[in-house]
Design goal:
This protein is 59% helix and 14% strand. By secondary structure, the chain is an alpha+beta fold. Helix 1 runs antiparallel to helix 2, helix 2 packs antiparallel against helix 3 and helix 4 runs parallel beside helix 5.
Length: 320
């Protein structure tokens, strides 16, 4: 600023001397011109000084604005970097979740393939036995014995048919259970009572269940509970509507059953294992799950086992 003032005064002095020199070399009548010219240039110099100050103020304002813009630019860069970091973290988390989902899907697929292979192997022997059985039935002379073998052959054939499906209608399942109970009934004595209690508003042709879902608890009730009990032997299958699904119960008044227990005549529990594995696979593909509970009834007025099965509405039975 001080330098600008000195430069302005220096220029003013130089121009004044130049004008005086030009005035002296001119006419006398114009001798007053240098004075007036000097006054005019002095005024111009002052205006020039003010203009210089104005420009300096503009430069200072520009520098301040540039500083503000630079600060905003730095803030924007920092914000962009933070958002980029968050984006990278989100991509990593999403990739990790997808990888875990793919691993679970692969495990489920491998388990499904293994079960299918076991199913194929298990079907070879029954088909062979069924063909032999049909031949032997023709040689049986006693009608009641022949009818029993026909019933057994029908049950075996039906078992082979439904084992290939992921779901069957409730009507088909109850028909299979009825065939099984007819086959077992002679071993339970004359005091065996069996009934199905179903709400009239339910249409079993429109309801679906996994194959053997009811048959396996019924088989357990007969083998583990009723066959060894004395007195009246009761088996009741209940089917009723729930708020968001249906509830199926298998209730007996036998001696009770503990999952995992075995006896020389009870088998190894393979049926339970298969149905639990099947439901586990199906549940992995559904938000709402099939639920099974097994309760031993130990009260003064009642005994036996109660199996409760809950199937949600709109349940998907596709596990592939």
């Amino acid at each position: 600023m001080e330098y600008s003032r000195i430069s302005t005064k220096l220029r003013t002095g130089i121009f004044t001397i130049l004008i005086l020199f030009l005035s002296c070399s001119g006419n006398a009548e114009n001798s007053t011109y240098p004075y007036h010219t000097t006054m005019q240039y002095s005024s111009l110099a002052e205006d020039n000084e003010k203009l210089t100050v104005h420009y300096l103020n503009l430069v200072n304002a520009y520098i301040q604005q540039a500083a503000v813009v630079n600060s905003l630019s730095n803030t924007l860069i920092a914000f962009t970097l933070v958002m980029l970091i968050f984006l990278l973290i989100a991509v990593f988390i999403n990739s990790h979740i997808k990888k875990q989902h793919d691993i679970r899907h692969l495990v489920a697929q491998n388990q499904l393939i293994r079960l299918k292979m076991e199913n194929i192997r298990n079907r070879l022997s029954p088909h062979f036995l069924l063909n032999l059985l049909n031949q032997e039935i023709q040689t049986v002379e006693q009608e009641n014995q022949r009818n029993k073998l026909y019933l057994f052959a029908r049950l075996l054939r039906r078992n082979l048919e439904i084992s290939e499906q992921s779901r069957i209608t409730l009507t088909e399942e109850l028909d299979f259970v009825d065939s099984y109970i007819q086959l077992e009934q002679p071993t339970l004595g004359g005091e065996f009572q069996y009934k199905i209690e179903k709400e009239s508003s339910l249409d079993p042709d429109l309801l679906f269940v996994p194959p053997m879902l009811i048959q396996i608890p019924v088989e357990n009730a007969i083998k583990h509970g009723l066959r060894s009990s004395s007195g009246v032997k009761e088996l009741t299958i209940g089917i009723k509507k729930q708020k968001d699904g249906i509830q199926i119960t298998v209730d007996d008044n036998g001696i009770g059953f503990t999952p995992g227990s075995t006896s020389p005549t009870s088998g190894t529990g393979t049926g339970n294992k298969i149905i639990y594995q099947t439901i586990e696979l199906l549940n992995s593909k559904n938000k709402e799950k099939i639920e099974i509970s097994i309760v031993n009834k130990e009260t003064i007025q009642s005994r036996g086992t109660l199996v409760t099965i809950y199937i949600p509405n709109n349940y998907s039975f596709n596990y592939e």
